[in-house]
Amino acid sequence: MLEFGADASATLATTCNSGAGSVGNGSAIITEAKKYLGVPYVWGGKSPATGMDCSGFVGYVLMQVTHKSYPQYTVSLESKGTMLFNGGKPVMSELQPGDMIFYGDHGASHHIAFYAGDGQVIEEPEPNDVCHIRPYKDYEPDFAVRP
């Protein structure tokens, strides 16, 4: 299993909201995210100029699309959208481009990325790597949030 920085050290109770997501434009999220392909992973990084980690990347992309501030920790981002649940279980079959996908348990997730559509994920993966697109099936997430 891959390890991803100190993002998991943040603690925040997750909430499940109902209704449509607040961003509502997954294609705009993915278009923005693709601008940062090749940006190096830097633990704690929040800017494409200096490098970003997974949560810095997701927060930065959402800020560019919505012009709102977003948390810079993976667990904190869990509550910024609509959890996709069916009877308490993640509904991964309903993923849409722009959905935030999480790895690890609720409240203790250790990695975040965007579902890019067509079975692809866009992410800042880990140290010594760069923002890239990879197949979803290579490392499947545990749950998702629609921003």
From TrEMBL:
<dbReference type="InterPro" id="IPR051794">
    <property type="entry name" value="PG_Endopeptidase_C40"/>
</dbReference>
<keyword id="KW-0645">Protease</keyword>
<protein>
    <submittedName>
        <fullName>Cell wall-associated hydrolase, NlpC/P60 family</fullName>
    </submittedName>
</protein>
<dbReference type="GO" id="GO:0006508">
    <property type="term" value="P:proteolysis"/>
</dbReference>
<keyword id="KW-0378">Hydrolase</keyword>
<dbReference type="GO" id="GO:0008234">
    <property type="term" value="F:cysteine-type peptidase activity"/>
</dbReference>
<keyword id="KW-0788">Thiol protease</keyword>
<dbReference type="InterPro" id="IPR000064">
    <property type="entry name" value="NLP_P60_dom"/>
</dbReference>
<comment type="similarity">
    <text>Belongs to the peptidase C40 family.</text>
</comment>
<dbReference type="InterPro" id="IPR038765">
    <property type="entry name" value="Papain-like_cys_pep_sf"/>
</dbReference>
<feature type="domain" description="NlpC/P60">
    <location>
        <begin position="23"/>
        <end position="147"/>
    </location>
</feature>
<dbReference type="Pfam" id="PF00877">
    <property type="entry name" value="NLPC_P60"/>
</dbReference>
